[in-house]
Design a protein that fits this description.
The complex is a heterodimer of chains A (about 425) and B (about 170).
Chain A: H1 4-11, H2 18-23, E1 27-32, E2 44-48, E3 51-57, E4 63-67, E5 81-82, E6 87-88, E7 95-96, E8 102-104, E9 122-123, E10 125-128, E11 131-135, H3 149-152, E12 158-165, H4 169-177, H5 182-185, H6 201-207, E13 212-217, E14 221-229, E15 234-243, E16 247-249, E17 258-267, E18 270-278, H7 286-293, H8 321-326, H9 336-346, H10 363-382, E19 399-404, H11 409-412
Antiparallel strand pairs in A: 1-11, 2-3, 3-4, 4-9, 5-6, 6-7, 7-8, 10-11, 12-18, 13-14, 14-15, 15-16, 15-19, 16-17, 17-18
Chain B: H1 7-11, H2 14-17, E1 31-35, H3 38-45, E2 55-63, E3 77-81, E4 86-88, H4 89-93, E5 98-104, H5 110-121, E6 126-132, H6 138-148, E7 152-159, H7 163-170
Parallel strand pairs in B: 1-2, 1-5, 5-6, 6-7
Antiparallel strand pairs in B: 2-3, 3-4
The chains are: A alpha+beta (about 425), B alpha/beta (about 170).
The complex binds FE2/S2 (inorganic) cluster and fe (ii) ion.
Chain lengths: ~425, ~170
């Protein structure tokens, strides 16, 4: 349970809210690089942290993320002409460069310098991996670039998708650290999904549906360990890292690619669910890449031309009661991502956490909220940089390991939980 | 209400969320929060006032009826409440919904073993909260964890004592 004021604090992320300002301490994923595939390609409308923005790539390949609306009379620059080093408003021809600086006002004499006075709000937009990242905080506080492993490995080793989720970011993110739902909601997928099946660890999963948990805090966030019985004298551990504010990684299975998420507020009632899949030491196979494109694993298929999942609230998520009854899918919804999203959206746009009844196994969620509340207060009252800004906090991995019963994953798997370039993930 | 939307689309709007009535959906919980060492007793003392009536704060004193000769683990223990009144573990946990053991990293693990075992044989699950600090060698933390692990469905290692109250309020204790 959270009190109302705590819930408001964590779920409100617009400009000048404490949590919104805290999100603006981080480099966050803004667009897939493929959304701006070429110089002078069409601009893209994007809303982040309750702010309407426009992304474009100019004639020289420079990326810009600027206020969506023309400073003249407020036209959306989505209609703009992306030409000759800038974006020109089609209404009266004002032109802006990738920093939002106005570089031409055709009605004014060039010599007047009028256009120098006009500048749209803009944010840096940089490409790392398959993602265009932005930092929306004060320019003098810009942190070093992100160092998430999935974005730094060679392109053939990684795949990223995003989908629109119609709920507040926090209830989506909490699904990523809610390890106890996996034995139920996703139980149908373990042996059927091409990106999951066949791992030795799966048999421990199936044999023991009541895992015990161990939550450990660290500088950047948390580790959430779920343990099940393995062979005599051993436990099978699945360890999920959470890095503040909203990065989570799923423990690996066999030699499958490893996956994880970011949950980024669009506004308070919508968020982007980013889903990545990568292998630290090998290229993804053509079959794996195809499966990801086909919406398997944690990815989805889309309403064509959008990032809205094909199964969505407008078609009742293609609910299949027969599949539910037969246990093909536990909830009747197909696919891991939409199994999660359908339930999280069903809570309503912003879930009322004053009504929930958490139990002991929800301590991962309780601790994450606690860390967020603590960080947002420290940031707001004392200006303390929140955990997760430092790229050192990005260099984590998830792990699946079998350990003797007297070993703590936090010690025994310390290396496995850290990014070591060229080292295969710890997985069974 | 907008027409033409699917049931799910209509049901998940903010307007519809207003129709979730705040009926109580849980009866008050009974919880036992047991400090296993003196550091955690101190951490609990400050919480007593904020907690609900269903919460008892206790400290571990010693095992009871330990059958040392049989080399068997004790299944009961003597506890003491905040006012210094002694009680039996067995009586305390009989109708408890939530049992939380609080200890600090490196503290003697005997208490955890006794309480964990006593709860385990009665099919009561415990939550273990280990207050960690940077000054405690990881070997000592490991010892505490290893003892508690078999008996705690949830083990939380937290740096800083303020998590105790946060967790208890989240669990409606
Ligand atoms: S059982 Fe967890 S939300 Fe219903
Ligand atoms: Fe899930």
């Amino acid at each position: 349970m959270l009190r109302k004021e705590q819930n408001d604090l964590l779920t409100q992320t617009g400009p000048a809210t404490p949590m919104g300002d805290m999100f603006r301490c981080y480099w966050i994923p803004a667009l897939l690089a493929e959304e701006l595939p070429a110089n002078d390609c069409p601009p893209v409308r994007i809303k982040l942290l309750s702010e309407r923005l426009l992304a474009f790539r100019d004639s020289e390949g420079r990326y810009g993320l600027i206020d969506e609306f023309c400073a003249h009379r407020g036209v959306s620059l989505w209609f703009g002409r992306n030409e000759k080093g800038g974006l020109r408003c089609p209404y009266h021809g004002w032109k802006y460069d990738h920093t939002g600086q106005c570089i031409e006002v055709p009605s004014e004499p060039k010599e007047s310098g009028f256009c120098n006075k006009i500048k749209l709000k803009s944010y840096p937009l940089i490409k790392i991996g398959d993602i265009l990242w932005t930092y929306m905080g004060p320019a003098d506080k810009e942190p070093p670039h992100p160092e998430w492993e999935f974005a730094l490995v060679p392109p053939e080793q990684t795949f990223t998708s995003k989908r629109w989720q119609e709920s507040n970011w926090l209830q989506a993110m909490e699904g990523g650290i809610d390890s106890s739902h996996v034995s139920f909601l996703h139980s149908g997928s373990l042996n059927s999904d091409p990106l999951f099946k066949g791992a030795r660890g799966n048999k421990y999963n199936m044999a023991d549906s009541k895992p015990f948990f161990e939550v450990t805090d660290n500088e950047g966030g948390l580790f959430i360990g779920a343990r099940r019985n393995a062979e005599e004298g051993h436990y099978y551990w699945r360890v999920t890292p959470w890095v503040m504010p909203s990065f989570t990684m799923v423990p690996p299975r066999g030699n499958h690619p490893v996956h994880g998420h970011f949950w980024i507020p669009i506004d308070d009632e919508n968020c982007w669910a980013w889903s990545f899949d990568y292998h630290p030491v090998r290229a993804l196979t053509p079959e794996e890449r195809q499966a990801m494109l086909d919406g398997k694993g944690i990815h989805v298929t889309y309403v064509p031309g959008t990032f809205r999942p094909a199964a969505n609230k407008d078609n009742d998520y293609l609910m299949d009661r027969e599949a539910q009854r037969l246990g093909v899918t536990y909830s009747g919804v197909e696919g891991i991502a939409m199994q999660d999203a359908s339930l999280q959206e069903s809570m309503g746009p912003i879930v009322d956490r004053t009504k929930e009844n958490l139990v002991s196994t929800d301590n991962g969620i309780i601790m994450a909220r606690h860390r967020l509340l603590k960080a947002v207060r420290a940031f707001k009252d004392k200006g303390i940089t929140p955990p997760g800004v430092d790229p050192a906090h990005h260099r984590v991995r998830s792990a699946a390991v079998v350990l003797p019963v007297d070993q703590s994953y936090i010690d025994a798997a310390a290396e496995a939980l850290t990014v070591i370039e060229g080292k295969a993930p710890a997985s069974v | 209400m907008q027409l033409g939307l699917s049931e799910s689309a209509r049901a998940t709007t903010a307007e519809e969320a207003r129709f979730r009535i705040g009926y109580p959906n849980s009866r008050p919980r009974k919880s036992r929060i047991i400090a296993l060492d003196s550091d955690s007793v101190a951490a609990l003392k400050s919480l007593v006032d904020q907690a609900s009536d269903g919460a008892h704060f206790l400290r571990y004193i010693e095992p009871k009826g330990a059958t040392n000769s049989l080399k068997m683990l004790s299944v009961d223990a003597i506890l003491e409440d905040i006012d210094g009144k002694r009680t039996n573990l067995v009586d305390e946990i009989a109708d408890a919904d939530v049992i939380v053991m609080v200890t600090s990293a490196g503290a003697s693990a005997e208490a955890a073993e006794v309480i964990g075992n006593a709860c385990f044989v009665r099919s009561k699950m415990t939550t273990g909260l280990v207050l960690n600090s940077a000054s405690v060698p990881s070997e000592q933390l490991k010892r505490t964890l290893t003892t508690m692990r078999p008996f705690a469905a949830m083990l939380v290692v937290s740096t800083g004592a303020e998590y105790v109250s946060e967790m208890l309020s989240a669990l409606r204790v």
